[in-house]
Structures are given as structure tokens and as C-alpha cells.
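input
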Amino acid sequence: MVRIGIVGIGFMGKTHYGAAKSVRNGAVTAICTRDAKKLAGDWTGIQGNFGGAGGMEDLSAVKKYADVADLLADPHIDLVDICLPTALHKDVTIQAFNAGKHVLLEKPITVELSDADEMVAAADRSGKKFFVGQVLRLWPEFAYIKQVNDSGEYGKLIGANFKRIISEPTWGANWFSDLAKSGGPGIDLHIHDSDFVNYLLGMPDRVYSRGILAGERFGKYVTTHYIYDDRDLTITAQCGAIAMKGRPFEHGFDAYFEKATLQYNSTWGNPLCVVTSDGIVEPEMPSGDAFAQELQYAIDTILNDSEPELLSGQSARDSLALCWREIESIRTGTIVPV
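output
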């Protein structure tokens, strides 16, 4: 069994804790937070941009640590699941590898590319597995695009647009609003779709982006053309914290294949729509909670001693690099090579 210690009990820590209840061959055996109320099981103050708020949790069966060093020193923990604010990712990840633990890290891997390189190098030195929770790769509707693109069931992909829009968040405001700590929407939010483009099609050759900058370095709203020089397709994405308050979190896509159009939007309240020449098709969708699948993938990879290709640290690092190229394109008004 893979014994999991969750570090950070905020919105994502709560989400991972709940997802772990349904995994096989693994269990959360410890948590770490400096918040005494959360250590006592009172998670009612936790909220995020989707799903419900926290509640009361029975933590009688798990160890409770207030200091991450104590959790990392626990020899009975195999996988450290890091759900801390992004600014803390680098130090705690490297400490975990130095302590001989496998690491599952919430996205984004970090803000600065040089820090991501250090984290990947630390994983390589340790010989332990490094997973980064780019969970969109496992989100059922997005996983379906990957499935039909790889199978060729509907012919070649011709074009696609991905959309991810929120209003200015109030949750996590104590650190999220600090751009140097969060990367702003152009990193923290947009990395989902940039990463999915990387996963679906590989890294593009060049990007051309327009948008709204936050400060001099960061992105508030990003629209990007991902340019593949050797392929006849058009891939775009739009993302940012630009909607009015009260507008719900929105993500989705329009994907155009030779023989089908795939459409999905989280605000519609309807499942993925697949339109072919024969009409609307109800596809067999990948099932299950994406966060539980993410944890299950990490558990299975550790137990099988296989490479964490689906959620690798190197891939997450490359997706971060792609986001920074897009911000550079906004800043310079030019097409930027990747």
C-alpha cells in the first residue's frame, strides 16, 4: 500500500483528501497544516472556484503534523502530496525528495522556470517519482479529445479553441493576488490549457499571443495561437480572470475533427456534445473523478515502478515554459519561438 501524506489543507488539500477515499492500494495516513482548527477536523472555512465548501472531517485515523519537517521525517509515508500555495512548491518539493519521498505536486509546478528546473533535477537525483497534478489530462471531456485524436476515430484534428474564464478570485486572496507568488491567471489558470495543448499535440514551434498584462511580467488575460509549422491545423486558447463578479467559473472547448465536432462548456449544464454527419452522438466517456484518477495513477506508477509519463515533472516544466513564451508574446507583440 502507498501511504500518502498531504501537506497543505486548503481547497486543493481538501479535494485530494476526498479523492483519496476512493483509491485502491493507497490511503492518506497523515496531513500537515499550521492551522489548529483544520488539524482538529474543522474544514468549514475552506472554499474554492468549484465544488462545495469544506465541512467537518473525522481525522482520528490519520497522523496530524503542524510542521512539514515532521511529516517528511515520518518513515511510514511513501508519497507526499503537496497542496501548498505555489510560492512554497519549490522548497517543500526539494525537501521531500531529499527525505526519500515520492512527490505529487499540485499545479502549477512553480512560477519561475529556473525553479522548475531545480525541482526536476532534484527528482532525478533522488530516484523518486515526480508527479505534477495537471489534472485536465484526466478530466473526462478533455480525456475524450485525446482519445479520439489518438485513435483517429473522427479523422484528423483540424482546429480547436480552449476557453477558461473566471472573475477575480476572492478565495486564496492572501497569496493569489501577489503575482510573484501565484504567477497570476496567465500561469496559475492558463497553464491548464497550455498543458493540455502540450499533452494533446506536443509543444508548438511558435506562439502568438495577445492579452492584458498584470504588472510588467504577468498575464491577466491571454489569447494564444499555437503554431505548428509542420501541421495544417489551428489551435487557440483564451484564458483569464476577466469576467464580472457573479459569473461562474467557465471552461470548455470547441474541437473540430474531419468527421466530427466536439463541444463542451462547463456552464451549459449538459454533457459533451459530439456532432457527426449522422447527427449527435452520445460517446462513452471516461468515467470517475479526475482527482481520484490522478492519485490512482501515482499509486499505480509507484507500485509498478514505472515512469510517470502522464503527469511527469518534466512535462509540467515544459508547459510552464510555454506559458512564459505566451506572456513574452503579449509583452513584445511578436511571434515567439518555443
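quick obs: The chain has twelve helices and 15 strands.
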